[in-house]
Amino acid sequence: MAQNIYDNPDFFSGYCQLPRQVQGLSGAPEWPAIRALLPSLAGKRIVDLGCGFGWASRWMREQGAASVLGIDLSENMISRAQEFTREDAITYQMADLETLELPEATFDLAYSALTFHYVRDFERLARMVHRSLVPGADFVFTIEHPIFMAATYPRWTEDEDGRKTWPVNRYSVEGERQTDWFVKGVVKYHRTIGTTLNALIQAGFEIKAVEEFAPSLDQIRENPALEEEIERPMMLLISAKR
Amino acid sequence: MAQNIYDNPDFFSGYCQLPRQVQGLSGAPEWPAIRALLPSLAGKRIVDLGCGFGWASRWMREQGAASVLGIDLSENMISRAQEFTREDAITYQMADLETLELPEATFDLAYSALTFHYVRDFERLARMVHRSLVPGADFVFTIEHPIFMAATYPRWTEDEDGRKTWPVNRYSVEGERQTDWFVKGVVKYHRTIGTTLNALIQAGFEIKAVEEFAPSLDQIRENPALEEEIERPMMLLISAKR
User: Fold this and answer.
1) I need a surface site. Which of A26, A102, B22, B113 has the fewest CB within 10 A?
2) Which residue does chain B place closest to A197, by CA atoms?
């Protein structure tokens, strides 16, 4: 079973303060880039893997989705999502993505934001998602970028000119990484970009787009703290088609 | 026009000493990984973009290719390639990949090793290669990995434990990078992985495999100097299909 860090009270209270949890989708600087990857949602049956508080699930329903199934490992997240939702077309389910089995050929879109780097067996997950989609369906997701995750000590350093610089080592050593984020020992799984893309292709997906999120100049003007994101990508956005 | 560093005498004399130039394909640790991406070559009409001394061109003909056209910007490389080749089915042509136009629907495989990072306009190149291939043809190439190329000072540092660590900055700032390799001021063009893959997809290719070369344990046992390559990928290998 995946580590359920979101039900750790210290983690959860820190996590709840993040702009993207307080403000929802508009608090996530990568959201415009994700939207650009999403197909038209009208009439679509959607599964949201790692739905958290359900911000995206509700937004997708507002865009005309026929139904949204939000899945999350965390009881905290699911109960908060249910509290925020007044919509019969949105349902939430507590489940572990390591073992989840969705019904076959049921969804038109699988969506996931910043969740799959908590999943150890991405190959299994990719095959399961593929089976759950109808032919022609989309699979759009974001993960922490492997450049961001690879190193033993993933934190800013400086180069000879004082420029913010991100260390990379152990890039080809895939597997568990422990990081301190609100609490000590949050477990994530590092995979190379190649491994992630090849797992999708092997599962039967066609890669449609790969984006390594960097803020726009407008975003940096509005929020100068984002400028460091041009130095190294923190997030990988992938769009694939069954 | 692309910088023609290979016809700089100081660069060329240094370059000729590289194991991969002295020993040919077996001197390149990534060669087994490239071979794994190549389709059967029997009867294929192949273009080798940035053929250098023609090591791969000749090997592909030995594997049964019907014909190989080797293209290189460097007069030094092309004349050396011609000298080494006694085969009417292999022809060489001096040309700049920035402006090259190949005949349409003529090749079954386009191959390139460590060349496209010298090309400023990869979108144009990808579209041109796509037109030159027949439907179902393969496009297999290697480039320097953007993790390797991005930083202002791309050279080993150490982390807190003394582990070899590679600096990344300016990752999302695409464009020219100057590096010192045998001579000062070798010009290369940094692109993110996303940009490279999306240019291929936009040109009409389907991505078949993405490999970020890392040496095997056997290769490290034979050549311990390769061990550092597990810390950060130096090369990106891509297989695509028209």
Assistant:
1) B22
2) B210
